[in-house]
Amino acid sequence: MSTIRLDLVLLAIGALAVLALVARTLKLTARPTGPLLAAGLVSLVGTEFLIAADHQRSFLVIDAASLPRLAVWALLLWAITWVVPRRDDSPALMGRLLALVSVSLLVTFTDVGPAHAALFAASSAVTWWILPHGAPRRLAALPMASSALIALGSTLVPPERAPYLMYLAVAIRLGVFPFHTWAVGLFERAPLVLAVAITAPLAGIGALARTPLPDDAWFAFDVWMVLSAYLTGGLAIVQRRLDRALGFFIAASASVVLIGVSQAGDLAHLGGLMMWGVTSAALVGLGLVVAALSARWGVVDLTRHSGLLQHTPSFAILFLFFGLATVGAPGTADFASQDVMLHGPVSHHPALLLALVGAISLQGYAVLHLGFRVFFGPPRPAVLKDVLLREHIGLVTLALILVLTGLAPQALISGLTTAEAGPPAASPRQLSARVAPQQPSLPIP
Amino acid sequence: MSSDVLMGSLGTLALVLPALGAMGIALPWLLRVRLEERVILRITNAVFSLTFLATLAMDAVFLARGGAPVEFLITDWIALPAYTVHSAVLLDAPAALIMTLTGFLAGLIGVFSGNYLHKDPGFHRFFVLLLVFASGMMAVAAGGTLDIIYAGWEIVGLTSALLIAYFTYREAPVRHGLRAFAVYRVCDVALLGAAILVHHHSGALTLLHPDALPPESQLLVGGLLIFASMGKGALLPFTGWLPRAMEGPTPSSAIFYGALSIHAGPFLLLRGWPYLEGLPALRWILGGLGLATALHASMVGRVQSDIKTQLGYASVAQAGVIVIEIAAGFTGVAMIHIFSHAILRAAQLLRAPAVLHDWFGLAARLGRTPTRHEGYVERHLPAGLRRRAYAFALDRWAIDDFGRLGLRQARRLLQSLDRVDQRFAARLAGDPAVAAEPATASPEGGHLVNDQA
Question: Best of B9, B73, B78 to disrupt the A interface by mutation (most A CBs within 10 Å)?
Fold first, then answer.
């Protein structure tokens, strides 16, 4: 049975990779092809074989870290290809997206070991390869090469030291401070949809989902990520262009998610995995809104209020919704994820918890600051189309999923814990709650 | 049906109804349908009428039970083997007070705003935000777990900022809305921190069992609760946002800064009273904060030249006095004070747009121009000191300048960092032109390319 399941996963990933090449050859555009592929991925997730966890330690692993990711990738792939602005929809984009998804899934489904590091290195190379020629490739060359080499280097050091290098490699890939330059620069120089597809799904985290950070590194790593969240969040606020601000905002969100994922063996790790899924979905939604606005308006100036609310009220609502959904707004799935995740830092030091919460608050302020700059202020004379039906369907679906999983997070948690439950070999991070005693139950009337 | 279940059900109904109303208005947007004004008004009026009736019925059951509080479990929101977060309501005297006030005043504001904002472009937005605010306020009041209280707290803050910036075509309200939100976010850090600390150390979901925490954590949680209450309560040094928040429509000013939101801070202190009760040092600090705020707001409010700002400062002064009452342990007095102040201030703020009309009406009835009594305290001060006090009050004690100075420095530092980063990126990308001149948007702010969407 487990072989069949692994075959299915392999088949899905392989098919995506092959389709990436076919799409390029047959000049398929994203809009008709992407949703079909996403539907294929969803049907795989829905297959009964895949719902139960596979607990055999093998080259590919289906567990809490990987299985939900298939569903999340399906959703994101569908959303991106469905909402992509017409000017960016091309066979080249479709090929790039498929290559990106296939390699990211391969990394996510691969178990710890040299193969994992090698695939991560290969995914860095693919990320570089799918970028357009010229400035974007030059900008990403050094960071991607560093990321790949460090990942490969992790196979040469003693196994207990390998996670340090893998975390460094992923930090470079995700563009957390001080490695943010390439990721933010991409938003200026590459097609916005491609920049969103590369950075917003936080794909690099797939390489860490099964790699615990050693205890002696937690505190230092958390401090680094908190600092990164503050600086990149602050830099998002002082930007003069919306696309760059979005790049910094994604880097800040990545820093917070990395804190959750790095916590081994407790609730916080589960919270981190939840955050990974819901934050990436919200970031993609936010990125798509910005891409749609940029397709209509060009580069959005943040040095003054643009007053776009009068022209694009629906985009204003969606911008604020997705932005706030990344910082744990009540009623969204990220609220529940944060609630669970924040139990990790508090076990290290209460001050670290407060600092992290402060960084998340700063990001919340950044969302409102950017939203107010773009949509509020004296209306500008212009004729802009508000959200199109196609965009409306894509973005509202994404938003509804975030709200429904936020109102009933147990469904999300059950999915993760069902996949996680099983023999230790397959699930190195059992849920050993650090929350001291079990709270007394309220009397059920 | 036992009285526990009945009261819990009524409380839950009051909590859920405004949220359902907001969804009722927002859902048609999902289907790209725009509701008419009268439909929105009917939904709003129906929702608030039912909510108010539910709170009245809940109060009746509460009184019939002799004032015994009820903890009512709705469902398990998150359930893990060693970690559970309930969706529950805690209905006691403070909760009943704030819920009843919310049901009544939100309904009143809904009716008032129907005429006040008739044909305003933001009519839909206002009513959705009003309903969302009411659900947030209900969650703060009735929240049986810290998670629900925090969720409501966040909703109140967000709707407050969006309503201050309601007149989006003017830059000042937008700026002030953002300022209020910044203060909220700073103080919300403390509430979320307190919630996680309590849950982590004691496993408790409410603030009712402080003994489960080690003493140093109790002190920390108590301090965090005080800090959290300072934002929405507009205590010093966070007072400056509230008078500026009066840029929003008058009905929202009335319900937020006259009636409900301003009392969310003191309410949190009442909820956290078990933590503060045994910590005299914290209570002295709290009392000092309340006193300083009351003095500041009274002094600054006297030199303001418009009625809404004066009323705003009057609200802050009363919030300061309420905090003093709580610090002194007079929690019952504080609740009565909250109730009466909320009603009075809401009425004054709703009447504020007609103040000149009232003034001239009074003059006509008196047959002369009404004069203010010449009995001010400051008349007894020496002239030089009086002038200085006037300038000091006009400058709002220069508190805003300190904050502005720090923020300006942080902004400059970040901008320098950004310039360095852009130059480095340009070098990596081999783009010397950008390296010389960091990125800016087009001076025209964009161009129309609708066809490419």
Answer: B78
In a domain, B441, yes or no: no
End-to-end CA gap in chain A: 45
Residues 30-49 of B with CB under 8 A from A: 30, 32
Q: Which residues does residue A241 pair with via DSSP β-bridges, in sequence order?
A: A301
Q: Report the domain count for chain B.
A: 3
Q: Which range marks the domain in which residue B408 is found?
A: 400-432
More confident call, A193 vs B443: A193
| Beta strand B70-80 pairing with B83-91 | antiparallel
Q: What is the pLDDT of residue B360?
A: 86
B34 domain-assigned? yes
Which of B91, B123, B144 terminates a domain? The answer is B144
The sign of the dihedral angle between the CA atoms of B249, B255, B256, B259 is positive
Per-residue pLDDT at B112: 92
pLDDT average, residue stretch A155-172: 88
At A66 the pLDDT is 72
Nearest chain B CA: its distance from A74 CA (Å): 23
A413 and B78 within 8 Å at the Cβ level: the answer is: yes
Is B336 inside a domain boundary? yes
- Greatest mean pLDDT range, A159-168, A177-186, A209-218, A378-387: A177-186
Considering the domain architecture, whether residues B189 and B299 belong to the same structural domain is answered as yes
Residue A7: what pLDDT?
A: 56
Do B353 and B415 belong together in one domain? no
Show me where the domains of chain A are located.
Answer: 2-420
- Cα–Cα distance measured from residue A5 to residue A392, given in angstroms and rounded to the nearest whole number: 35
CB pairs under 8 A between A and B: 256
Out of B76, B174, B203, whose CB is closest to A376?
B174
Size of chain B, expressed as the number of residues it contains = 453
Specify the range with the lowest mean pLDDT, choosing from A77-86, A223-232, B75-84, B137-146. B75-84
CA A277 to CA A202: how far, in whole Å?
A: 9
Inter-chain CB proximity A436 and B5 less than 8 Å: no
Is residue B389 located within the same domain as residue B415?
no
Q: What is the mean pLDDT of residues B96-124?
A: 92
Selected residues 112-151 of chain B with any CB under 8 Å from a CB in chain A: 121, 136, 144, 147, 150-151
Sign of CA dihedral B193, B197, B203, B206: negative
Cα angle at B82 between B80 and B87, to 5 degrees? Answer: 55
Tell me the per-residue pLDDT of A16-26, one tens digit each, with 9 for 90 and over. Answer: 666 666 665 66
Q: Judge if B181 and B68 occupy the same domain.
A: no
- B166 within a domain of the structure (yes/no): no
Pair B127, B206 in one domain = no
Kindly report, residue by residue over B204-222, the tens digit of the pLDDT.
Answer: 677 667 777 888 788 899 9
Chain A residue numbers with beta carbons less than 8 Å from the beta carbon of B30 are: 396, 400
Give the separation between CA A391 and CA A389, rounded to whole angstroms.
5
| Residue of B71, B133, B196, B413 to mutate, testing the A interface (most A Cβ within 10 Å of its Cβ) | B196
B97-101, B193-197, B254-258: the lowest-pLDDT one: B254-258
Based on the domain organization, do B22 and B79 belong to the same domain? yes
**Is B7 touching A (CB cutoff 8 A)?**
no
Mean of pLDDT values over A391-416: 87
Both B55 and B189 in a single domain? no
The tokens for B231 are 């934002």
B411 and B273 belong to one structural domain: no
Euclidean distance between CA atoms B346 and B260, whole angstroms:
9
- Looking up tokens 């939203």 gives A371
Are residues B78 and A368, on separate chains, in Cβ contact within 8 Å?
no
Output the pLDDT for position A16.
Answer: 66
